[in-house]
Design a protein that fits this description.
Four copies of one chain form a homotetramer.
Chain A: E1 5-11, H1 17-27, E2 32-38, H2 43-52, H3 64-73, E3 82-86, H4 93-101, E4 105-108, H5 116-129, E5 133-135, H6 143-153, E6 160-168, H7 182-187, H8 190-193, H9 198-214, E7 218-226, E8 237-244, E9 249-255, E10 266-271, E11 274-279, E12 285-290, E13 295-299, H10 312-316, H11 328-347, H12 362-380, E14 386-387
Parallel strand pairs in A: 1-2, 1-3, 3-4, 4-5, 6-9
Antiparallel strand pairs in A: 6-10, 7-8, 7-14, 8-9, 10-11, 11-12, 12-13
Helix pairs in contact in A: 1-11, 4-5, 5-12, 6-9, 9-12
Amino acid sequence: MKRKLRMGMVGGGKDAFIGSVHRIAAYMDGLVELVCGSFSIDPQISKDSAEALFVAPDRVYKDYKEMIEKESQLPEDVRMDFLTIVTPNFIHFAPAKMALEHGFNVVIEKPMTFSTEEAIELQEIVERTGLTLALTHTYSGYPMVKQAKAMVANDELGKVRKIIVEYPQGWLSRLSEREGNAGAAWRTDPKKSGKSGAMGDIGTHAAHLAEYVSGLKISELCADLSIVVEGRHLDDDGNVLLRFNNGANGVLIASQIAAGEENALTLRVYGEKGGIEWKQHDPNNLYVKLLDRPLQVYRTGNAYEAPYTLSSFATHNTRIPAGHPEGLLEAFGNIYRNFVLTVSAKLDGETPTPEMLDFPQVGEGVRGMAFVDRVVESNQSSDKWVKVD
Amino acid sequence: MKRKLRMGMVGGGKDAFIGSVHRIAAYMDGLVELVCGSFSIDPQISKDSAEALFVAPDRVYKDYKEMIEKESQLPEDVRMDFLTIVTPNFIHFAPAKMALEHGFNVVIEKPMTFSTEEAIELQEIVERTGLTLALTHTYSGYPMVKQAKAMVANDELGKVRKIIVEYPQGWLSRLSEREGNAGAAWRTDPKKSGKSGAMGDIGTHAAHLAEYVSGLKISELCADLSIVVEGRHLDDDGNVLLRFNNGANGVLIASQIAAGEENALTLRVYGEKGGIEWKQHDPNNLYVKLLDRPLQVYRTGNAYEAPYTLSSFATHNTRIPAGHPEGLLEAFGNIYRNFVLTVSAKLDGETPTPEMLDFPQVGEGVRGMAFVDRVVESNQSSDKWVKVD
Amino acid sequence: MKRKLRMGMVGGGKDAFIGSVHRIAAYMDGLVELVCGSFSIDPQISKDSAEALFVAPDRVYKDYKEMIEKESQLPEDVRMDFLTIVTPNFIHFAPAKMALEHGFNVVIEKPMTFSTEEAIELQEIVERTGLTLALTHTYSGYPMVKQAKAMVANDELGKVRKIIVEYPQGWLSRLSEREGNAGAAWRTDPKKSGKSGAMGDIGTHAAHLAEYVSGLKISELCADLSIVVEGRHLDDDGNVLLRFNNGANGVLIASQIAAGEENALTLRVYGEKGGIEWKQHDPNNLYVKLLDRPLQVYRTGNAYEAPYTLSSFATHNTRIPAGHPEGLLEAFGNIYRNFVLTVSAKLDGETPTPEMLDFPQVGEGVRGMAFVDRVVESNQSSDKWVKVD
Amino acid sequence: MKRKLRMGMVGGGKDAFIGSVHRIAAYMDGLVELVCGSFSIDPQISKDSAEALFVAPDRVYKDYKEMIEKESQLPEDVRMDFLTIVTPNFIHFAPAKMALEHGFNVVIEKPMTFSTEEAIELQEIVERTGLTLALTHTYSGYPMVKQAKAMVANDELGKVRKIIVEYPQGWLSRLSEREGNAGAAWRTDPKKSGKSGAMGDIGTHAAHLAEYVSGLKISELCADLSIVVEGRHLDDDGNVLLRFNNGANGVLIASQIAAGEENALTLRVYGEKGGIEWKQHDPNNLYVKLLDRPLQVYRTGNAYEAPYTLSSFATHNTRIPAGHPEGLLEAFGNIYRNFVLTVSAKLDGETPTPEMLDFPQVGEGVRGMAFVDRVVESNQSSDKWVKVD
């Protein structure tokens, strides 16, 4: 890289949790500077945010349209390199499309769009423009998730037979959307969130994680969604039976009414020769259970000797030596870092390495939208199985 | 109790794991003596077992029929008080029926019978004779499982909304039934095990645990069973969506091909006000997650102050003070101890306490058989839901 | 074994925790029957205990003297085979000595005697009579402790460099001996407990565990004992620097005022090539940390392939397959079982196997007393190091 | 804050682990920009590092002297605001002193200096100049460490009675300093590291953590240091008995030859009413063990209701909601953030809040040097106790 990349931001005003996460992730490696933004639909919040973020007043815009238009007219060595979109789901597609069409790369929150149609259109634009889009499926950024993926790919478990992925949260155990919780409000509003609540918000993370690590695709599913908290308008809980394209079976559980749980995403993959387990609350451990062997715990940052050596994908995404816990912000930072390294390589006329390219992209966004569609369809059906394309 | 109870045994020769477990459970509290048995269909093994178990040669019988007949002719203060049945599933019903009809109480392994019809008939006999039958759903014998049940019953979680129960094992990851593993052989043989493999063997434990702790009944289910290991004749894996009779949803997973897992039965129950989690590998901890509170870990044997005081059902089933781990044999021993205390109370003309009566009985055996029937029916159906009576 | 062994008991009335633990341990394998006892200095408690324990009234004795005298006059095939002594420390020596001199084997609680002189005398009697004495250092009975010992002996860690053994309890955080806690009362009374409180009661367990697993001997120590709770008469807490006879260093911590701890005995042994860790609260896991390798967790009851195969000493002391937790009562039971197998082998004119002989014996009792002496001496000295013989 | 602060750096070239940690910590909140540096004594490494770090070539200096001189001549709105010193221990004092005397604030690695004399002189300069010095005792930056401190301060444990702090690492189990490990080389070289190895490098962290959380001071100690690996010149292991200024006792263990351990810093504090435990490998959990209560696990980022509400010091140092693990880089970042907020407040003529001021400062650096002096003195003495001033 010859210079820092310049980031613009839609959404993420100082009152929004996720904007701050994106900024920390973008900042931590010193590869990105925030140069412009439209941080809120409330102009005062946007202005205040810009000040707190040390963004020049003349690069705070009233909305994403103005931002993209004006930035694209700035000199090439001044204007933003990429746009980060951290608005609610229903305002993902339009700024992403417009940014790409004006030549800007994009980082976008999941689920990628409001509908599958939008997702497919976005994919076409990305392919047409040759630009780069990163989708922040955060959990795929953890080093031990990458190690798990590498071990499956290296056939250390044999053929995969069963996958259990769970994402229990408890934060919507009450009707928090009526108690002034802004994040709860839009996530439970079908007009802003889309056709699913919990499945769209966190089920998509779980599905992505299962497919990412296993290298398999969900081919059929049978879903049971619930609106558990009375008065809510979208599913806050769901259980899904899965079948994968190699014949493996699985279960996906996503809940926001699992009272007392924080963010307990967990993945287990079982193959012919052994199983692996990873827990987001304890992200630097990967539990490897091979038949006829003691349980092994692989840990981030270690320089194990062969044949235990950590994958290059794990080590590329690790910043500090073993025993120094890395957390969610670093996992998030890995997505940004790989996105930035990829964009920079392209700008510099170089070919990104496989490790750089290892971040969720537009195809995974399309797949996530299809997953939501099929889950909702299955939930409404009295047939057992629904095929996933 | 005025005297030890006298136990007879069908099956459980010295080559069988489960017979030994029953004996340790029966012996540990000094309330039971083994007086007779038919330990194996192989007369030499039966004779050798008797010798190793210090059973008098004249009370070793060639089969359960001879045993029940001859024992019933012995003087009242000599003959066995109860018969323990630890044969494969297809030889549960006949000895149980005959024992009850000759006035002997019964301890029986799960699943209780080969078919639901047999189970219902057994229930009728138990009700008619007024005798006592204990079904060894081992895991309900753990003190912290009883604490969990008490906390749900005391409304500490509020209305139950979601239950996740899992029972992953990996010991059938290979075709072990062809490699001389006797336990694997009969369990995977439809003629000996019944219409289901994993679901009958361990799925029934999981279903029992979920119902026992929650006090709810499974009312509908949607099952996906698999024969994962090629060449096997019964399911070795299954995933089931559940609906309970109060509207709660749930998931039950039972697998014997979860490579690398030992016996990782886990239960999570989520209510309006919080959730609980219990893991069989770590049985002396009960994780209690109340909304807006730090996670609490209740542990066996503690004399907590109110309102944390452990339930009388937990303390009644605890032998030693906090910090001294109790394990599966003690949980198993609790079922025996409560069975023996109940039988003795009845013999002595006393009324057993609720704590004594807290062991799995014939009704739970009927319910387990119905669960297996419905799971198998659902698996074969293209409809989503099957009702459970 | 041709018959069950017959046990007599001094102490262990129905109001005493530890008597019950001994009986469960003795009973669980069906190798022992309780035939006589003097369960309490209170004749009514002794009589009631005998009744509850199904001991014949004519074999309940007013004290250990009467018991030993009368039992030794009974026919050989009736009288007790061994005497279990579960009285407070100051009544260990006399009954043990008298029992041995009348030809009875002995099981005795730790610390073995009140003074080192008594311990040495007992050792001489054991050696002279050829009888067997088992000292219940419970924690050495756990299978994973035996696995740890085997791994050190097999040089899997290389030369041992450092040992950390801790035994924190919190149950004496208050002046419980004044609040009617009988166990607390005698343990904190110098006339009944001996010259040390916490160090005698639990520090001896810790020291034994460190030496048992490492195969090393403590050669020097530097102790800092405290009476933390005002009004107490014996140490309730102590920290000790250790040096072992191979040059390794170490730390031993024993506390009964570590508020909130239950019985958290933990051992870590570090060698040139790796370390191991074992925790009594989690006794079926042995954490093995080899240089340049992922952490391995060895677990009780597994049939690992070579070179991971569990030691014969671990498997000999395991009753049930992997995934079925064994606890403190089984560890205790292992001491009894090995003692009984050893005594029976001798009675039958056979040679006990090394696995049978693997239980704490009189020499370890002498060593425990010397440890207490040296710790107390060091605590009173302003010199840094005190040598241990 | 009205603007980002400008950071200069001595040491921390691209080949050095710790420089990178400081930069990530400084960058993550978007409050700091790196403007100048002398990154290595090797000019080419320094130049290359500057390029990779996007530092302008005209602000890369040949050494700290040149940097401080030239920077101090730059306009006020251009020159660095503070200097980060990440060189080996023997080059801490001189640049720190010179920076302060030229008006620059300082961030410095621990141990603060090479000798206690230097430390005291630095303290005098800081006091005289009124400038701010941050000492990176990383572990005090974790939110749950701050929660622990708050709970002790709020008397939730009662009077503190016992403290156990351990810092086992295994990375110096071999003579790595002879195998090309640069970090090992200087740390084991008395000329570069100081009079102690393990105790200076990590024992100081442990001592700081114990004093920081408990609010107590170590008043006496008895140390046993070892050079375990043959051929090494400084202690690689040490065990220390402690006495605190309120009468509490304690143990401190620091080892770099605890083979198989990563960075397993652990603190336990026991008071009259309960104990707390914190483990650096698992930093978002704080285990709270109150007498007569179930174990409680406080976790980072939760909005618990009273009386469980997390301290303002914990929440001020948390970036993301519960269930999103924060790690070492965030803890490190908290030290930077508080330092920067304090410096900015002073620059803006405001008074820093207590939360802002909660980072290790020069007094703690002096105390750390005294600790090392006393430990080394005690190790060489045959007297049991050495007083700490």
